[in-house]
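Entry for nicotinamide-adenine-dinucleotide complex. Fields follow.
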Amino acid sequence: MILEDVNNQEAALEREFNPWLAAETRFNEAALRLGLDDGLTKVLRSPAMEVTVHIPVGLDDGRLEVFTGYRVQHSLARGPAKGGIRFAPDVTLDEVRALSSWMTWKCAVVNIPFGGGKGGVICDPKILSPGELERITRRYTAELMDILGPERDVPAPDMNTNEQTMAWIMDTYSMHKRHTVTAVVTGKPLNLGGSRGRPAATGRGCRIVTLEALKRFGLTPADTEVVIQGFGNVGGMAARLMHESGLKIIAIIEYDGAVYNPRGINPFELEKHRQATGSITHFAGGEDMDPQEALFLPCDVLVPAARENVIHSQNAGKIQAKILCEGANGPTTAQADKILEDKGVFVIPDILANAGGVTVSYFEWVQDRQGYFWNEALVNERLEEIMVNSFNDVVAFADSHKVNNRTAAYMVALDRVAFAIRLRGIYA
Ligand code: NAD
């Protein structure tokens, strides 16, 4: 291939991987098929508010540094903005904007009363001390005091932020309000207003929708072979829960290697092995495999639960799964959608498949506002009800409108948000 072709192909892939363009493609298709008028389409496409803050923070060595942070509230039509805050050196406003619109559609598809939001701070957590991270978090929160709140915008953890970050946000917000406001963030530690069942919720949601999808294929759990990419919070939990339900996990893929066993991998044993050795490779309960190849193993269910853009125009043709359960956000590019559809892959799209996390975040917010906390069985029962109903709403819509599941999920979501906007009317 000559250099110009290589450059063109790289430029095309870069466009394909742009999260804002990916979100736009799915949005446009759904809006067009719903026949939304131009005005409403513009309202639905535009973020309601975008805030950029430049925050001065004293570093441990005495220097003063200025960090840039963003918070985008894409939609408030159905309730407060909901969505994570990420800390990373390459955060961009485009990315935060795309992710915030994603949250609007995700909350709408599971029919919880939230809009979408997302935030980010450009910083490198790997070179920052806990004290520096705390000062960045507190100053970022203080700058956003006027737009955050249980009724306005409720952040959560995302890339490189965690329960501790949420506790600092909750404390800073509460100090300004002069009283404790636990419902301003979700993903908090359990004894600070967090919800039981939250850490497992996304993986649990993946299992629930996968079990529903199996019924459509007439597959029993014992007949089902699963490949999972990513053995972290979502993938690790999905693996353990699916294993408990009797599904056979034939491969687990990590960034540094994959483990394969056609007789089934025990994810509990694999986790012990990783804790002992630091890697999933050289596991006695399976054989090592090239992680690139493992993604294309013949299987019933493939769960990409690691990162975005892993299935794209150049490799989608090699996928051999019947069902694709998108545990990660954006694991499939818009260009790959068509290839998967032509192959007849049953896609459970990310905004549905991984919505178990935001659903239990919603439960956390409800419990905080009630000041009354549920046991784990109740959390799981209510999660199951919401995930099953949402799955059925989407596939029924796909069947009746003859569209693929992703388009159906977006159409259901856009329609719900559009309905709220029409009913509320435009305030002028
Ligand atoms: P995590 O960091 O706990 O786990 C991700 C795992 O994937 C890690 O073990 C990592 O080593 C592995 N990984 C990274 N790159 C890889 C690669 N190229 N190939 C194979 N493995 C790779 O993160 P998580 O919370 O499990 O999130 C995973 C995905 O799910 C992300 O896209 C996230 O946005 C999405 N998600 C998470 C939640 C949640 O509740 N945690 C909710 C919704 C969506």
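NOTE: DSSP finds 15 helices and twelve strands in the chain.
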